[in-house]
Specification:
The chain is about 40% helix and about 20% strand. The protein is an alpha+beta fold. It has a six-stranded antiparallel beta sheet.
Length: about 150
C-alpha cells in the first residue's frame, strides 16, 4: 500500500485527525491533540539517517499481539515508542502484511487508542461536529495564549 492510499484509509477511521510534525512525519490522532487526543499511527516521510533503522509506518498494537507481530520479517519495535507496544513496518513496499491485515491492525490501533482516552475526551468526541470544532478552536486559543505568556 502506498503512502497516499494509507493516508486516505487512516483518515476514514473514527475521530482521526492528522498533523505534520517532528520533521516530515504524518501523525494520526484519535481526537485533536488540543483536547487531549492521543496518537495511534505515524507515517515517516523522512530518511532517518544512519543511526536509526528505516521505518515507513509505526502504530499502536495490543500488548499481546506486539510480540507476535515482531516475529514477522520487516516488523520491528517502533523507535522511541516500543515501550508503549508500538511496532514499525520498515518498508510499505515489502509486502510485510497484506492490505487487509494492515487495515485490520490500523483499525485496532485506532480502537485501542480510543479506549485509552480519558472520559472527558471521549465525551467531547461524542459531541456534534460543530460543538467539537468550537471547543477545539477555544482550546487552541488558550494554548497559544499560554505559550505567548511563557516567552519573554
Amino acid at each position: 500500500m502506498d503512502v497516499e492510499r494509507l493516508r486516505a484509509f487512516l483518515l476514514t477511521l473514527p475521530h482521526t485527525v492528522e498533523t505534520r510534525q517532528w520533521g516530515n512525519n504524518l501523525v494520526f490522532w484519535v481526537g485533536d491533540k488540543a483536547i487531549g487526543g492521543k496518537m495511534f499511527a505515524l507515517i515517516n516521510l523522512d530518511d532517518p539517517g544512519p543511526r536509526l533503522a528505516r521505518t515507513d509506518l509505526s502504530f499502536a498494537t495490543d500488548p499481546e499481539r506486539f510480540h507476535q507481530l515482531l516475529e514477522t520479517e520487516g516488523i520491528i519495535p517502533a523507535p522511541y515508542l516500543a515501550r508503549a507496544k508500538w511496532i514499525a513496518i520498515q518498508s510499505l513496499n515489502a509486502n510485510t502484511l497484506t492490505r487487509t491485515e494492515l487495515q485490520d491492525l490500523l483499525r485496532e490501533a485506532n480502537a485501542l487508542t480510543y479506549a485509552r482516552l480519558p472520559t472527558r475526551v471521549r465525551a467531547t468526541l461524542a459531541l456534534p461536529a460543530t460543538q467539537q470544532k468550537r471547543l477545539i478552536t477555544e482550546r487552541r486559543k488558550l494554548l497559544a495564549a499560554e505559550e505567548k505568556k511563557k516567552k519573554p
